[in-house]
């Protein structure tokens, strides 16, 4: 992996130098990990003309659970508590003769930005913007392998839940059980807060579990994800509890499933982000559900659960191969409930079989 990290840093260094900066400071934890490998909490990465330095407050453990940073990096540990690695990195850059440094202004607080200027007043600070996030959009096969394993773990946890007794249990209890099962199957933890929604809560995007108990005839919608070696996936499914689904439940489920399938089938290299969103949205619009639809149909995943690209009506840009995204349309009917279906897929060209589905739990409307 050392060569991979070095190549990523070289691309970022080229971007910084093209913008007139001799050094770059990376502070977003996901970006630090992408460029340096597993690092202590709060660590920052300083890219110089030739050498790169990981600045951290905590000493590196002998055998950290997630691995060690790239061995090619210099390690600068702050002495004593209370120091800010970003401020120390700016001081190092100035001491090594840098006249300018590109920073992630979207991640720095105003207070931290002022501290950088204070410790190195001769250092010109420029904005590197979302350069690292842009580099992260297209994944290599090692990253996709991590996402694939995370998806397998999520599928396992969900599959086991479906085999258990659900009636009478609370949303909160089921969410906690799912998160425990994720860890049992090898996840570092949940990719985000697990959502379990029953009855009138079902189908809500980002629903926070409550003490409502599962009842016969409920829709049950579940959204969960696993983190494996830092990479996060997402899966969402909707089921009916106890009895055969009612006609309105079947109709609503079939509609959302058709919207999700339309968006999944549109995932090919070169397709505009907004066209993927449109493929799902048109199916739901045509059935009269234009009001209250989510702001987007899906998004990128990776070291963060919500990355670029955004599959939304106004999104600009086109899909590339090897970009993992979610496709997650849904409809919620106030007072009745609703349906969400959510998959993680990797964009692949038709010659390679089209989009690769990572989350494979059945999308059949099951009565549990």
Give the radius of gyration. 23 Å
- State the order of secondary-structure elements, H for helix, E for strand: HEHEEEHEHEHHHEEEEEEHHEEEEEEE
The mean pLDDT is 94
- With strands numbered from the N-terminus, the spatial order across the biggest sheet is 4-3-2-1-5-6
Label the overall shape. elongated
Strand content: 15-25%
Main beta sheet strand tally, sense and closure: 6 strands, mixed
Helical content (DSSP H or I, runs of 4+)? 25-40%
Query: Which structural category fits the helices and strands?
Result: alpha+beta
Low-confidence stretches: none
Per DSSP E runs of 2 or more residues, the count of β-strands stands at: 19
Distance linking N and C termini: 44 Å
Tally of individual helices: 9
Write the layout of secondary structure elements.
Elements: H1 2-18, E1 23-26, H2 29-36, E2 44-47, E3 52-56, E4 74-77, H3 85-95, E5 100-103, H4 110-119, E6 124-127, H5 131-136, H6 141-162, H7 171-184, E7 189-190, E8 195-198, E9 219-224, E10 226-228, E11 231-232, E12 235-240, H8 247-265, H9 273-286, E13 298-300, E14 307-311, E15 324-327, E16 330-333, E17 337-340, E18 343-346, E19 356-357
Helix pairs in contact: 3-4, 6-7, 8-9
Write up this protein.
With 368 residues, this protein is an alpha+beta fold. The protein contains 9 helices and 19 strands. The chain has a 6-stranded mixed β-sheet, with helices on both faces. It has a 3-stranded antiparallel β-sheet with strand order 7-10-11. The mean pLDDT is 94.
